[in-house]
Design a protein that fits this description.
Helices cover 55% and strands 13% of the residues. By secondary structure, the chain is an alpha+beta fold. It has a single domain, classed as Arc Repressor Mutant, subunit A. The strands form two sheets. Strands 1-2 form a two-stranded antiparallel ribbon. The protein has a two-stranded antiparallel ribbon with strand order 3-4. The N and C termini lie close together (5 Å).
């Protein structure tokens, strides 16, 4: 039986969700140095990626992503220290939730019909 991931979507405040999509976008920006490239990696338009980054930057006390304007070599983006901290904390919460949920998930999976796991 394969273990599947837990997808954790947090509501940090009313109207301020944070979940696997935003975390993956931040990871993409960290890894690729570009909002556009991070969005492409996720199958997301640049406009959608930029909208999410803009919302996250507005929702936190400090911006999570610093973007440089395009030019001859194009722009770029990087996580700020706040962005790194938010991403690290989210992943730690996700791991703690997966560990806490493991026994219950095992019991639920044991009840699945043959061929479903």
């Amino acid at each position: 039986m394969a273990d599947g991931p837990i997808f954790l979507r947090l509501t940090l405040a009313p109207g301020v969700p944070f979940g696997p999509g935003k975390a993956a976008l931040l990871e993409g920006i960290r890894d690729l140095g570009s909002i556009a490239a991070a969005g492409r990696r996720m199958g997301m338009s640049y406009q959608r990626a930029w909208t999410l980054v803009s919302a996250m930057n507005a929702q936190f006390r400090e911006p999570l992503v610093a973007a440089a304007k395009g030019g001859a070599k194009g722009g770029g983006a990087a996580l700020t220290p706040a962005g790194e901290a938010v991403l690290t904390e989210y992943r730690a919460i996700e791991q703690a939730a997966a560990k806490a949920a493991a026994p219950g998930l095992a019991r639920l999976r044991a009840r699945l019909a043959e061929g479903q796991g």
